[in-house]
Amino acid sequence: MDLYCVMGNPVEHSRSPWIHARFAELTGETLAYGRRRIELGGFAGGLAAFRADPDGTARGCNVTVPFKFDARDAAQHLSERATLAEAVNTLSFRDDGVHGDNTDGVGLVHDIERNAGVPIAGRDVLLIGAGGGASGVLGPLLAAGARRVVVANRTLAKAITLVQRHAALALEHHASIEAQELHTVAGDFDIVVNASASSLSGGDVPVAASVLRPGTLAIDMMYGPAAAGFLDWARAHRAVPRDGLGMLVEQAAEAFEIWRGVRPPAAQVLAELRALVDG
């Protein structure tokens, strides 16, 4: 049996096993997909244990917070987008070693444009956070044609580093890109993406409501109870709230295609999962 899993901490809430089981069912693929909670500082050991699982052949895994940088370090080969992000959320175990990719950004872009129906081209985007989640989505947001992207982070130096790494890509796509501190973000935006850890930790939204205008698409990369505070905040200020469920399904579809060579029906699975979660 081919084995896959999602590794993270926390991971008990993850819908990834349901998503990949449904993908497998709809595409006729045979596999098993589970959850693995990894202790902080124990990613390398957890990865080795998964690869040594006697119940089947480990073929790959998804990686969620806080291990996307650890996954990058574990990979012997990196895709172009993982190299730019310096973060990995999809590992594949192949004959020539461990391959790392990042499907977060394409997942977010697909969810915004295909599922939410909002074009990114020509829009102003605020990206909150500069960790593994933000690192994975900045490049694809620029490639999708965003006019301006502001990366806001509690530690300005991290935001500056992320922006500098993407400066050439921004120039290539004629986009403006800059780093700001959370409390100094000025102006309002067409799209606001919360890629910070604030939702996961139950903290307050880390930017002022002035970043929103009526109709702003406000997306939290988390979903379920973790995203509730951000979504309520967005709704209260007449923005359009959206959780990370669509991004989760879309990035999973990209990972599934990398592993199995077949594209699953993401829109169908998202509709089914949304009904399951909201029901």
Can you give a write-up of this model?
There is one protein chain. This protein is α/β, with parallel strands linked by helices and 279 residues long. The chain is 40% helix and 22% strand. It has a 6-stranded mixed sheet, sandwiched between helices. The chain has a 6-stranded parallel sheet with strand order 9-8-7-10-11-12, sandwiched between helices. The two termini are 33 Å apart.
Stretches where pLDDT falls below 50 for ≥5 residues? none
Q: What radius of gyration results from the CA coordinates?
A: 18 Å
Q: Total helix count?
A: 11
Number of strands: 12
Structural key phrases:
single chain; 279 residues; alpha/beta; six-stranded mixed β-sheet; six-stranded parallel β-sheet; 11 helices; 12 strands
Summarize it.
With 279 residues, the protein is α/β, with parallel strands linked by helices. The protein contains eleven helices and twelve strands.
